[in-house]
Write a structure and sequence with these properties.
The protein is of the alpha/beta class. It has 2 domains: 135 residues, Rossmann fold (3-Layer(aba) Sandwich), CATH 3.40.50; 84 residues, SIR2/SIRT2 'Small Domain'. 30% of the residues lie in helices and 20% in strands. It is built from 9 helices and 11 strands. The chain has a 6-stranded parallel sheet with strand order 5-4-1-9-10-11, with helices on both faces. The protein is elongated. The two termini are 15 Å apart. The mean pLDDT is 91.
């Protein structure tokens, strides 16, 4: 069974009605990213930050996986599928994908503000209890914070993502620019013999030495076309 590694960005979830904080313009749902997606913002006003993510969890749970998410999950019948996503929503999991690496964290998890990656203090929230209360603390006594990679913080999951990319028989990029890291960086790990596909209605200029097949469509239509192309290849 061939290994299909898929990198997804904001364009994957836009059909479901979600934006991500990596969108252009410095705003996430009309909030300045420096207020809600930086460590400095958390220190300055932790109540604002946690209230923002409470709101985002409710918004995310009201959205449904789109056909693109569902088709990627169904591809597990024919391929070993590894999803690498820049998105913080759980739409891939809700669609049925088994193997998902979240580069920028997970909206439905909270953690210690002192040691965000200490697994003892990472907690998954439930749909009936999604809100962090003002002053609520993690198990180590520090304030709870969203399990989100803020701007300026390291991306610890990039190393496992690179390992997955290096073993890809087919590499697919959906809804994210090949001019911006980590997408551009992961391309360097894809084996030379492995085909690369880019699904994006507005792909822009592609600055890479690798040969990339472009599918100028949104996520749902693009994944459907990819499936047909792979069947006929």
């Amino acid at each position: 069974m061939k290994k299909l590694v898929v990198l997804t960005g904001a364009g994957m979830s836009v059909e479901s009605g979600l934006k991500t904080f990596r969108d252009a313009g410095g705003l996430w749902e009309n909030y300045p990213v420096e207020d809600v997606a930086t460590h400095e913002g958390l220190l300055r006003d932790p109540v604002l930050v946690n209230n923002f993510y409470n709101m985002m969890r409710h918004k995310s749970e009201g959205c449904m996986p789109n056909q693109g998410h569902k088709l990627l999950a169904e591809m597990e019948n024919d391929y070993e599928v590894q999803i690498i996503t820049q998105n913080v929503d759980n739409l891939h999991e809700r669609a049925g994908s088994s193997n998902v690496i979240h580069l920028h964290g997970e909206l439905m998890k909270v953690c210690s503000s002192e040691n965000p990656y200490d697994e003892r203090y990472i907690r998954e929230l439930t749909t009936d209890n999604m809100d962090v209360q003002p002053g609520e603390k993690a198990g180590d006594g520090s304030l709870l914070r969203p399990f989100i990679v803020f701007f300026g913080e390291s991306v610890p999951m990039i190393e496992p993502a690179a390992r997955q990319a290096s073993s890809a028989d087919i590499f697919v990029v959906i809804g994210t620019s090949l001019n911006v890291y980590p997408a551009a960086g992961l391309l360097a790990y894809v084996p030379k013999k492995s085909p690369i596909y880019l699904i994006d209605p507005n792909p822009g200029d592609i600055h890479t030495t690798a040969h990339v097949t472009i599918i100028k469509k949104g996520a749902s239509e693009g994944v459907a076309e990819l499936i047909n192309m792979l069947k006929n290849s």
